[in-house]
């Protein structure tokens, strides 16, 4: 149901054309909101623009709203805004988290409205997250709060030894060599992803000893992109994993943002998209007339 998060996915979303018309909706989130929270937003945004829609666009809007509500019904988001794209004749629904709030908007058109996502990507460049230990690594892409595992690398297993003596020392030395070889392979993979896939920063997680060894093996260009570190366990999954990695990513962004710098949402509200209204100027969220795809 949800879109992947690589930058290629954004290109893939921009490519299709929808003769049947598709709905793009940008909606505020609220973890404590009731079941009608998204319905109220959609109704409010649709009502504001209804007089500007053609008959076909109105029909498509009525057709897609139930699909959007169904996609959101059982989800809770730890982000301020989501974009939902829907075309029921194509059985197509995608959800994309946004890093910052912006005025709500709905668009019914033959292509998806991706302009807000593109704008936020300029302010929030994608990050590559690596959780490493001596025998394996898990790699994740973080794009505007969307998290997706893009690789799981397994090296030579590392065994623990309790017995003493010369043989145990030699065996431990061999295991240390295996660990270094594993981390060296991971460092090469991470460096390659950073170089060719458009990631602008690296987030490193795992046990402190493995992180230290891993950093010593990274090429200088890759090491220069290291932005944050944390002790995220290899076994973390689901909400725990996503929450920890997103928290590290947000720390980086707060540290990098210049004092007094405008956010994408602030620029939208200041008039960059002149059809939008501030959400505090009317009873519902702000809106933009659906004047076509970006």
Q: Can you characterise this structure?
A:
- The chain has helices spanning 7-14, 37-49, 55-72, 115-123, 166-196, 208-217, 220-223, 238-256, 264-272, and strands at 22-28, 81-87, 92-98, 105-109, 127-132, 136-143, 146-154, 201-205, 226-230.
- The protein is α+β, with helices and mostly antiparallel strands.
- It has a 5-stranded mixed beta sheet with strand order 7-6-5-8-9, sandwiched between helices. The chain has a 4-stranded antiparallel beta sheet with strand order 3-2-1-4, covered by helices on one side.
- The longest helix is centred in the middle third of the chain and has 31 residues, at 166-196.
- It is elongated.
Set out the fold topology.
Blueprint: H1 7-14, E1 22-28, H2 37-49, H3 55-72, E2 81-87, E3 92-98, E4 105-109, H4 115-123, E5 127-132, E6 136-143, E7 146-154, H5 166-196, E8 201-205, H6 208-217, H7 220-223, E9 226-230, H8 238-256, H9 264-272
Parallel strand pairs: 5-8, 8-9
Antiparallel strand pairs: 1-2, 1-4, 2-3, 5-6, 6-7
Intertermini distance: 23 Å
Order of helices and strands: HEHHEEEHEEEHEHHEHH
Class by SSE composition: alpha+beta
Mean pLDDT: 79
Low-confidence stretches: 1-5, 263-294
CATH topology grouping of the largest domain? Translation, Eukaryotic Peptide Chain Release Factor Subunit 1, Chain A
Label the overall shape: elongated
What is the CATH superfamily classification of the largest domain? eRF1 domain 1
The CATH architecture of the largest domain would be: 2-Layer Sandwich
Radius of gyration: 23 Å
Largest sheet: 5 strands, mixed
